[in-house]
Amino acid sequence: MTMVLLVPAVSAAQTAHIDRVTTSLLLTVRTYDTFHVWGPDLLTAQATAARALHEAGIEISWNDCSLADGAPAIASPRCNQPLDSSEVMLRIVGSDLNDMNHSMSMGVSMVNLGGGKVPCLATVFADRVWYVARSASVNAARLLGLAISHELGHLLLDTNLHAMTGLMRPAWSRSELRQARADDWRFLADDADAMRTRLRNRVRRER
Description:
Elements: E1 5-7, E2 26-33, H1 39-55, E3 59-64, E4 67-68, E5 71-72, E6 87-93, E7 107-110, E8 121-125, H2 126-136, H3 140-157, E9 171-173, H4 174-179, H5 189-206
Parallel strand pairs: 1-9, 2-3, 2-6, 6-8
Antiparallel strand pairs: 4-5, 7-8
Helix pairs in contact: 1-3, 2-3
């Protein structure tokens, strides 16, 4: 599991340097939104996450596998099929409202599974994202997208370790959220390279 934290403002010792890459690598994300994020906000979040992954050389295809009125609202028949190597699952859920505070996890990812298993499940807590967004006076839908891209990064890297700077750093301060410096919300070049390599290897192992 991994976490994203909101903490008092801190200064970064390094600046994230990102290589923009043009590639045909594709990651399919099956989305299970039990929080029922408002449609336009979800689209903004998905666009934000897709932009971050695109700059890292990975395109995202979204499959809505959420439930509506207790019945599957399936946009693709793939939602009923086993995951393939280029697919992951994203849950957007609520959490215990009583544990809201200035330093908390906005998401978790199941990684380091062992036994040759590839990580495929990430969870983002939408109510915590909204709480943090209000606390920092930033756009909640965009913050949701950043949290999603961070957790997808953990799945692709298969690690709960964090970078010193960039999108995969562990702590996001209020001032960083407000300043919205582009390099703070991009994957580092080394992380982007590693994600592409691991995604390629996942696909090759299935062939």
